[in-house]
Amino acid sequence: MANDMDEEKKTGISPLFLMPLIIFGALTILFAAMMFSDRDPQELPSALINKPAPEFKLPSVIGLERDGMPVPGFQHSDLLGQVTVVNIFASWCAPCRAEHRYLMDLSKDDRFQIAGLNYKDTDVKANRFLSELGNPYDRVGFDTGRVGIEWGVYGVPETFIVDEKAQIRYKFVGPLSEASYRDVFLPELEKILNEAK
């Protein structure tokens, strides 16, 4: 017993003492590798890709109009029969404001519908936001957060492309920029539209 203690004193540091330092070092290296890798944070994997969209039924945003007509709420059955771009947005979301012009551009194309999921917002603020920037949506559902969770929303904005069979085919996380809109989102949308023909 005395020999074991003498041996530990001779080597200086116990292996048990080094273990947390080794684990911390390995985790630091792993974290740094992930941060500086070429992975695009916009392409977070989604368990819902190529799966049916969740069942849901959301009320409309009270008072919201487009071309003088009330904008209806949004539910699962609205996804059937044509390709749908589903945009998760909120008036309090600065990146939503930044990407809004790309949604307005999409609204000029009648080969698909655009549905908005107004996330954790208020009717008044959503109306003000869309009155100021324009309303690209054919329908908007007011969500307190539950439906967003079912769709696997990490945060706003997020934009999905759902095919005519209500299968989620693509998910873009974060705001669309000029480059991501032109080089990533539009090609994905065109591919899905061509498959739907």
From TrEMBL:
<keyword id="KW-0201">Cytochrome c-type biogenesis</keyword>
<dbReference type="Pfam" id="PF08534">
    <property type="entry name" value="Redoxin"/>
</dbReference>
<keyword id="KW-1133">Transmembrane helix</keyword>
<dbReference type="InterPro" id="IPR013766">
    <property type="entry name" value="Thioredoxin_domain"/>
</dbReference>
<feature type="transmembrane region" description="Helical">
    <location>
        <begin position="12"/>
        <end position="36"/>
    </location>
</feature>
<dbReference type="InterPro" id="IPR013740">
    <property type="entry name" value="Redoxin"/>
</dbReference>
<dbReference type="GO" id="GO:0015036">
    <property type="term" value="F:disulfide oxidoreductase activity"/>
</dbReference>
<dbReference type="GO" id="GO:0030288">
    <property type="term" value="C:outer membrane-bounded periplasmic space"/>
</dbReference>
<feature type="domain" description="Thioredoxin">
    <location>
        <begin position="47"/>
        <end position="194"/>
    </location>
</feature>
<keyword id="KW-0676">Redox-active center</keyword>
<keyword id="KW-1015">Disulfide bond</keyword>
<dbReference type="InterPro" id="IPR050553">
    <property type="entry name" value="Thioredoxin_ResA/DsbE_sf"/>
</dbReference>
<protein>
    <submittedName>
        <fullName>Thiol:disulfide interchange protein CycY</fullName>
    </submittedName>
</protein>
<keyword id="KW-0812">Transmembrane</keyword>
<dbReference type="InterPro" id="IPR017937">
    <property type="entry name" value="Thioredoxin_CS"/>
</dbReference>
<dbReference type="InterPro" id="IPR004799">
    <property type="entry name" value="Periplasmic_diS_OxRdtase_DsbE"/>
</dbReference>
<dbReference type="GO" id="GO:0017004">
    <property type="term" value="P:cytochrome complex assembly"/>
</dbReference>
<comment type="similarity">
    <text>Belongs to the thioredoxin family. DsbE subfamily.</text>
</comment>
<keyword id="KW-0472">Membrane</keyword>
<dbReference type="InterPro" id="IPR036249">
    <property type="entry name" value="Thioredoxin-like_sf"/>
</dbReference>
